[in-house]
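Let's practice the habit of predicting before peeking. Look at the sequence and jot down your guess about where helices and strands might fall. Then scroll down.
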Amino acid sequence: MRVAMGIEYDGSRYCGWQRQDGNRTVQAEIERAVSFVANESIKVVCAGRTDTGVHAVEQVVHFDTKAERRKRSWILGSNANLPDDVSVLWAHEVSEDFHARFSARSRRYRYVILNRFTRPAILAGRVCWEHVPLDVQRMQAAARHLLGEHDFTSFRALACQARHAVREIHELRVTRLGCFIHIDIVANAFLHHMVRNIAGVLMEIGSGERDPEWTRELLEVRDRSLGGVTAPAAGLYLVNVEYPGNFHLPQQGSPPVFGMAQGDAT
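Done guessing? Here is the structure:
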């Protein structure tokens, strides 16, 4: 049987999602816990690999197993064998044509910026801190150039292994809630560091260092070396993954929202 799972994790103490020899990863923890419940070796496939320090509200994985367990057993049994910063949200039996990565229609990320003069303590490792005041209207104006299908060479890591850089962004919004700025982005797929590079560019524009037209210019030159600084991993959350309705997945992911922090960016 094939089982899909929704996974939540705080990536602060992990070297990313993908299994690596000698390093602590989310995939390794999930496989260890699920293998214990299944009483056999389990390998999981995820919707999208996240980098070191990146979090997930609802990562989606699938695995094949000969074990027959109730949904409750998959969830509670796995969580009993997982560290506190990783949790299985749901489990659902799916057909063999379901694939966590290739069946996905889109992925949603949120990048969270704490925009105030003083650094965070409680939220350290969970938000990006920027003490320079950011103009959200400038950032949103710049974001509009990135909507639609483009070659995002200027917004991917130099070490990105994707065959091509063409991706389609369905939604890109920049909003402020008190001291917090949220960058919400939905696309059919993402390149390595794509969201963090977009966030870095928008932050430079929001600070006044660049004009909103810079995003359009970067798309046209297709040169990563001309792009902005890659934003820190701490503020990035994989929110959820969208699949066709025929799989009937019990998806729960919604963007993380932090309270109205005291202080301001001045």
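How did you do? Residues 2-102 form a domain with the Alpha-Beta Plaits fold (CATH 3.30.70.580).
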